[in-house]
Write a structure and sequence with these properties.
Elements (H helix, E strand, L loop, with lengths): L9 H13 L8 H8 L3 H13 L3 E4 L3 E4 L1 H25 L6 H8 L5 H10 L25 E2 L8 E7 L4 H9 L7 E8 L3 E6 L5 E5 H4 L2 E5 L3
Antiparallel strand pairs: 1-2, 3-8, 4-5, 4-8, 5-6, 6-7
Helix pairs in contact: 1-2, 1-4, 2-3, 4-5, 4-6
Length: 226
């Protein structure tokens, strides 16, 4: 088990964060999924998983892959907190657009101290969500559940609110913003075309907006309670 004051290496932090992202709903992360997410060879995944298992950060699940131990999850959430506070600070205080901050935060999250992150969080008045609507873990390692459905799953006539969006691809984010599909926006789902597109009515928008299925799968929604 690593010392609580010892900073993990970048490769280990990336590995733990990848496991968390793949297995966020309580499952496991397969070798192939981790290799794809980290752009490394499966043999490298196997070797890293073995080392981290010996450190008490992950455990192997026969025939299924690996999952985080409680300590591994705590470390992964620390990285996620740094990443999402950085995204929030870059947008709110430095004028970055929401499609620019992900890659910048990826580079910075391994270099900044937790002390600096908490200073940034305080300056932002301790935000609960990042610019893409994703919950920010607390300093104690707690995080809001994110088992939302996607816009692609919404039935015709459903009234929903955009809760969060996937943030990895700036092209998708720019396209979402152009259509007004940002966190907090109310939508009414209209006509749907199987495996092609759906029409949504955006709050305060003049007319309907066509949303492709690929984009709709990247938009997380909740029922609109208002």
């Amino acid at each position: 088990m690593p010392d609580s004051t010892e900073r993990l290496s970048r490769s280990v932090e990336d590995f733990l964060k990848a496991i968390y992202g793949i297995s966020e709903q309580g499952g496991t992360a397969s070798t192939s999924a981790l290799a794809e997410a980290l752009d490394i060879q499966p043999a490298s995944v196997t070797g890293m998983a073995k080392r981290l298992a010996e450190s008490g950060l992950v455990e192997h699940v026969p025939y299924r892959g690996v999952r985080l131990t409680p300590e591994g999850a705590r470390q992964a959430l620390k990285v996620l907190r740094r990443h999402r506070i950085l995204e929030s600070y870059l947008c709110d205080r430095l004028g970055y657009s929401w499609d620019d901050v992900h890659d910048e935060a990826e580079r910075l999250e391994h270099a900044v101290s937790d002390h600096l992150i908490e200073r940034m969080a305080a300056a932002l008045e301790f935000p609960n969500y990042d610019p893409h609507g994703t919950p920010i873990p607390t300093p104690g390692g707690e995080i809001e559940a994110t088992d939302f459905s996607t816009l692609a799953d919404a039935a015709p006539g459903a009234e929903v609110r955009v809760r969060a969006v996937q943030d990895e691809d700036p092209t998708w984010l720019r396209s979402m913003e152009e259509r007004g599909l940002t966190p907090g926006t109310r939508l009414t789902v209209g006509r749907t075309e199987a495996d092609e597109s759906l029409t949504v009515l955006v709050e305060d928008d003049v007319g309907p907006t066509e949303v492709g299925r690929d984009m709709a799968r990247r938009i997380y929604v909740v029922p609109d309670s208002d």
